[in-house]
Amino acid sequence: MIRRLRKHRLLAFALVCAALTVVLALLAADVSAWQTTVSRDDLRFRAQPTHGALWNPVTNLPGDPASALVGTSSTIKWRRALQYFWYSRIGSNPDIRMDTSTLRAATQDKLLSEVSSAPTEIERSAAANLLGVLVVTTPAVGYDQSAIKQLIRRATDYFQQAITLDPTNRAAKQNLVLALRIAKPGKGRLGRDARSGYGYSKGESVVVFCSAF
Q1: pTM of the full predicted structure?
Q2: Which long-range contacts (CB under 8 A, 24 or more apart) does 138-143 make?
Q3: 118-151: buried (b, 16+ CB within 10 Å) or exposed (e) per residue?
Q4: 170-183 vs 145-165: helix axis angle to the nearest 10?
Q5: pLDDT on residue 20
Q6: The dihedral of CA 147, 154, 176, 108: what is its sign?
Q7: 93-116: burial string, b at 16+ Cβ within 10 Å, e else
Q8: If DSSP codes are grouped into helix, strand and coil, which group holds residue 212?
Q9: Distance between alpha carbon 212 and the CA centroid of its chain, in Å?
């Protein structure tokens, strides 16, 4: 009887060990899937920023414990904010129907969240810079001169905040100069860029946008 109990215990222990081995193997595979998918989709995002289903790996274990283990929450939150910025630039979200004003408001909320909670100062600075670009590219239809000046002032504040968070943020520095030149354009090249509006910003702001990964 005792021998039978021992055999059953050994068998049960062996089954538990086998199950644990399978779970650990699946967990390792899920961690690898997250790492591979994020790296691959970062490259896809650079080429196609509006590509659907980015950073969404297929995992094996229910509840996706690998996501918590790797700590993907802040990583994906940051990338979604960046993707929304791109949606606001083209005026549509391919996944959800939104009017332009709603989309811009959602983008602003996501970027504001990143400014306050992103894990690194570089990311917080990049988010503040993009907020400045978002504000200064607000369509001016229906705005009087006073309202436009307020928009420029808000954008300037965001660019200055970006520089404070990361003094090496070159794009924020140039965007700050352009924002100031919009209010009072000079005769040089930057003045001409400012007078032509922030269509120019798809140079510098996109550099920060893509290099933020």
Answers
A1: 0.75
A2: 138/104, 139/100
A3: beeebbbbbbbbbbbbbbbbbeeeeeeeeeeeeb
A4: 160
A5: 86
A6: negative
A7: beeeebeeeebbebbbebbeebbe
A8: coil
A9: 8
